[in-house]
Amino acid sequence: MIYIKLMLSFLLIGVLGFGGGYAVLPLIQQQCVQTNHWLTMTEFSDLLTLSQITPGPVAINAASFVGMKVGGIAGAFLASFAFMLPPFLIVSLLYVVYRKYGQLKTVQNALSGLKPGVAGLIAVAGLGVIIETVWGSAIVLASTDIFSLALIVAALLVLRKWKPGVIVTILACGVMGVIWELIRPLFE
User: Fold this and answer.
1) What residues make up the domain containing 184?
2) Statement to judge: residues 125 and 151 lie in one domain
3) What interhelical angle do 166-183 and 146-161 show, nearest 10?
4) Are residues 96 and 162 in the same domain?
5) pLDDT at 135 over 90
6) CA-CA distances (angstroms) from residue 183 to 9, 144, 154, 175, 187?
7) CB-CB contact of 42 with 129 (8 Å)
C-alpha cells in the first residue's frame, strides 16, 4: 500500500512540478510533510541540504531520499521513476507542439509569463526552510537563532557577490556551524 501511495504522490508532483528542481520543492514539501506526514519540517530541511550536496538534480535526489525513507530501495526507485515519468511524457509531447508553434508571439509571451510564477514557488520553498532554520516550526522572536539568520544572510551575500558555487557555500556553512557549536558555550 505504501508503494502505491508513494508512486501516486510523486506522479502528482511530476505532473504539477513546472519550473525545474527548485520549483518542485514546495510540492514535495506539501506531499511529504503536510499531506502524508512522511517527513517532519526539520527532516525536509535536512533533505534539501542532502539533495543539494549530492550529485544529480535536486528534485530527483529529494524523491529518491523520500522514497528510501518510506519504502527502502524499492521506494527510492518507485518515487524517482514516478516523479520523472510525467515530465518525460509531457516534454515529449510539448516538443512536437513547440517545433510547430514555438515561434508564435503568443507562445513566447506565455512562456515569459510562467517565469514569475516559478520564481514565486522557489521563494516559498526557500522561505519555509529559512523559517525552520531560524525559528523552528513557528516564528517566535524570543527563540530566534541569530547565528543561523546571520549565516543565511552571509551565504546569500557571498553567493551573489563572489559566486563560489552551491557546494562550496553549503560546505563552508557546515564548517561554520561546527565551529559555532564548539565555541557557543563560551558565549552562554
Assistant:
1) 145-188
2) no
3) 150
4) no
5) no
6) 43, 18, 19, 12, 7
7) no
Give the Å distances, CA to CA, from 105 to 76, 117, 128. 41, 20, 36
Q: What is the pLDDT of residues 3-42, one digit of tens each?
A: 999 999 999 999 888 766 777 888 899 999 999 999 999 9
As given in the structure block, the three cell numbers for residue 101 are 508553434
32 & 68 share domain: yes
pLDDT band at 81 (very low <50, low <70, confident <90, very high): very high
Query: Of 25, 16, 56, which Cα lies nearest the Cα of 126?
Result: 25
Mark whether 54 and 106 lie in a shared domain: yes
**Residue 103 burial by Cβ neighbours in a 10 Å radius (0-12, 13-18, 19+):** exposed
Same domain, 102 and 167: no
> For the segment 86-115, what is each residue's pLDDT rounded down to a tens digit?
999 988 998 998 899 989 988 888 777 667
- Residue corresponding to grid cell 552562554: 188
CA nearest 24: which of 80, 107, 101? 80
